[in-house]
Amino acid sequence: MCAPEIVRHVRDSAPRPSRRALFGLAGLAAAAAVVPAPAVATPRAGGVVDLTHTLTPQLPVWPGNPPIATVPVAWHAAGGFGQLALGYWEHTGTHLDAPAHRIEGAATTETLAVADLVAPLVVLDISAKAAVDADAVVTVADIDNWRAQHGEIPERAFVALHSGWERHLAEPSAFLNLDAQGRPHAPGFSGEATEYLVAQCGIVGAGVDTLSLDCGADPDYGAHTTLLGAGRYGVEMLANLAAVPPAGATVVVGAPTHAGGTGGPCRVLALT
Ligand SMILES: [Zn+2]
To answer: Given CA atoms 253, 243, 59, 139 in this order, what sign does their dihedral have?
Structure first.
């Protein structure tokens, strides 16, 4: 899907103004003698898939990071409104990695281009090799296999790695999969494949269903460095990638907007 098609898709999916709203707007324009009937929205064929994990203290976090803390600070019985105070490190749950996460002085959360947060969704499924190798990575060959089956990677796509690692979520020790040195082992992108996606395919971002864009065995963090170093963003701990097609969906990344952020929990949706 090219960029104009994405814009059209989003526009066609957006709520239409009500007839009452249209008449109200028309009333402001004295010259508007005739108000056209609102266009009838064309139902979208597919649905919306939530690619986000519910953020709970039980979710696995990167070694050394604390789980999210929620504290009630207002009650309906005392004042009429409820409110929680939240405490979490930015890279908790399904979350964004802004370029500044890896590159000092690079783009922070609130400066990401909103046009890059709605993108064609490409899903690379390496679950077969990840089932037998915790350090499995997306390779250039995996990308070429996808292209052989589905055609070219769309312009300005978001490429997600589906490793099947989500099956370990209920058991945090298995999800983290620490070795004797305390280093996590889980699938990710190879630095070489990330370079290929950035330089040859022009992606806007990349995501994984694990805690890191890199596989745990990469001490150089090649995927983080290449992706974020190119000014693109990452999303980690994606959910439900098995429920979206390998090609043809659109991803919407509800990125955080706190000033100076290196990332943060986000709501990620796939429009199928
Ligand atoms: Zn992160």
So the answer is: negative
Query: What's the whole-model pTM score?
Result: 0.82
Gap from CA of 143 to ligand 1 centroid (Å): 23
Residue 33 Cα, ligand 1 centroid: separation in angstroms? Answer: 55
The Å distance, Cα 224 to ligand 1 centre, comes to: 9
Strand, helix or coil for residue 175: helix
Query: Separation of 233 CA from ligand 1 center, angstroms?
Result: 10
The neighbourhood of ligand 1, an ion, using CB within 5 A, equals 91, 97, 236
The domain locations on the chain are 1-43, 48-271
pLDDT digits (tens, 9 = 90+) for 209-263: 999 999 977 788 999 999 999 999 999 999 999 999 999 999 999 999 999 999 9
Superfamily of domain 48-271: Putative cyclase (3.50.30.50)
Quick one: pLDDT band at residue 45, thresholds 50, 70, 90? low
